[in-house]
Each structure stands twice: as structure tokens, then as C-alpha cells.
Amino acid sequence: MPLPACLFARAYRCGRFKGEAAFGKDTLLKQTFYGFRVHMRVCWPGVITRLSVAPANAHEISVLPELLESTRGLAVRDRNYWSPEMREEPERSMGVALLAPYRTKKRDPAPQRSALLSRLRYRIDTVSSQLTGRYSLKRVWANDLWHLTGRLLRKVLSHTVAFLLNHRAGNPPSTALSTPLLETRTSG
Fold it and tell me: What does pTM read for this prediction?
């Protein structure tokens, strides 16, 4: 998910994160932005277990070893992480089987498999949209990486505590992330 450091019009004059932030493409807004890209590892049923902040121009595959460190089993990833080379390497060295939809949907040799993986990825999209919407992750303004990291970690910790409280309240995992924590219900 993109994390802008400043407005695009001010990017060349921006003194924040000199040498650390970079220009990248926001595929959702179809715009260029200046800042970072946040990568997350989300475990079932929606708990963030790893967080990585990279410059916006860093490719997703370069962050993959950091996200998969000390992981075993299956890892479902986005189309951006699809790479034949990166598919075999973590399986040999770390014991992780990487599953990703084919790079282009039009030329997909197994569209049913890609549809199943996309349904599994729905949970990850739910978590990232909550961080963007409820926790205003894209409005984290800081002048250095120390403060940026602290603010991001506080937001992730808050999300984890809210998830835990929803789980202890008996909400099922499918609605625990989409139900407000302190929702009041009136019986009519």
C-alpha cells in the first residue's frame, strides 16, 4: 500500500526523508506519488504479523525475504509478487510455498486457481483498507524514519488489540474486522 511522504506538487522541494523516499506509482489512484510503500504479512484470520516499509520504487519481490523470515507453510500473495524465480527459491531455502495468481488475468493458464487465491486475499485487502480508512495510515506525517516507524507500529498495535477484543467478544473472524469495536445494538 502506498504511503505518501508529501503532496506530489511539493515532492521536489520536500525536505522530508531525503535519500530514503522515492517516486512510485499508485495503481489504485493511477498517479505517481513520492514516499514509501508499506508491505504486510497478514495471517489468518486477519492479524498483522510483519510490516515492512520500503521506498516507493522498490519492487515487491525485493521485500519478500524480509516478510517471509521464519515462516513455514503456504503464503498467498498478490499478482505483483508473481515471479517464477521467486517461487522456487523460498520453497527451497525457507520451506514456504508461494501461491500467487498469474501475472496477467487474460493469459492465466488456471483461472479457477487464481479466483480461489483472490478470494483468500480478500482478508488482506480488508486489513489494508481498515488501516487506510479507520486508522488513517496514509496521513501519517513524520519528518524522519524514527517517528514514521513509531506511528506505524502504534497503528498496527491498535489494530491488533481491536482484533483481539473483537475475538474475545465472540465475533466471528469474518465480521470481526468489519464490525466496529464499540458498536451499540438496540433491540426494537
Answer: 0.75
Distance CA 37, CA 58 (A): 8
* DSSP conformational letter for 112: H
Kindly tell me if the per-residue pLDDT of 177 is higher than 70.
no
What's the chain's length in residues? 188
Q: Which residue has the cell 510503500?
A: 37
Let me know the angle formed at the C-alpha of 101 by 124 and 123, rounded to the nearest 5 degrees.
Answer: 15
The domain limits of the chain are: 2-176
Rounded to an integer, the average pLDDT of 147-167 is: 89
**Other CB atoms within 10 A of residue 130 CB:** 18
Distance CA 84, CA 145 (A): 33
**What distance in Å separates the CA atoms of residue 116 and residue 127, rounded to the nearest whole number?**
18
3-state SS, residue 47:
strand
Instruction: Answer yes or no: are the C-beta atoms of 55 and 24 closer than 8 Å.
Output: yes
Beta-bridge mates of residue 55: 36
CA distance 9 to 14: 9
pLDDT of residue 181: 39
Q: Which residues contact 24 (CB under 8 A, 6 or more apart)?
A: 2, 32, 33, 34, 35, 37, 55, 56, 57
